[in-house]
Design a protein that fits this description.
Elements: E1 4-5, E2 7-13, E3 23-25, E4 29-31, E5 48-56, E6 62-71, H1 72-86, E7 95-97, E8 101-109, E9 112-119, E10 138-143, H2 146-162
Parallel strand pairs: 1-10
Antiparallel strand pairs: 2-5, 3-4, 5-6, 7-8, 8-9, 9-10
Helix pairs in contact: 1-2
Length: 163
């Protein structure tokens, strides 16, 4: 499957259970939106977070998704992995996988992080129709800077602690 260069914005767990995971914007930026749990959900619960996202593969196609794809523990694991990746403590091509999302670290230039985000099943492109539920790791490539990746990871972990 070919990798699509693109943007991922508003990647946010917010639906009935929560409110904000991360926002990837552009090939060179990695920003965030807040993570909040709904008032009706206990802060100690580690059940699924509902993640919303908008993905633009920059090939004329874009999609939005809304799915339960990370537990609280997985969200913390992702934050730790992103921070280690920003600091150069993750091996190139190391992969972090969850049932509906995957993250692979590479470089687009020496020392410049590239994240390849894989979207599976409920997070995969909606135009796949019935094939969507059979899709694993539809790839979108994000070329970043270490600073933008670290800033997003730090904000992510801060919000998880505040939750």
């Amino acid at each position: 499957m070919r990798s699509h260069r693109g943007t991922v914005t508003g990647l946010t767990p917010n639906a009935p259970a929560t409110g904000g995971l991360r926002c990837w914007a552009g090939e060179t930026a990695f920003a965030h939106r807040g993570l909040r749990r709904a008032a009706s959900r206990p802060s100690s619960e580690t059940g699924p977070l509902v993640v919303e996202g908008t993905v633009d593969a920059l090939d004329g196609r874009a999609w939005m998704f809304r799915a339960e794809c990370l537990s609280g523990d997985e969200a913390r694991l992702l934050g730790d992995w992103l921070l280690r990746a920003a600091k150069g403590r993750v091996e190139l091509l190391e992969r972090l996988t969850f049932p509906a999302l995957s993250f692979t670290l590479d470089e687009h230039e020496y020392g410049q992080p590239r994240l390849i985000v894989g979207f599976s099943q409920d997070t995969a492109p909606s135009w796949l129709g019935e094939e969507r539920v059979l899709t694993f790791d539809y790839p979108v490539t994000l070329d970043l800077t270490p600073e933008s990746l670290e800033a997003a990871a730090v904000d992510w972990e801060r919000e998880l602690r505040a939750d």
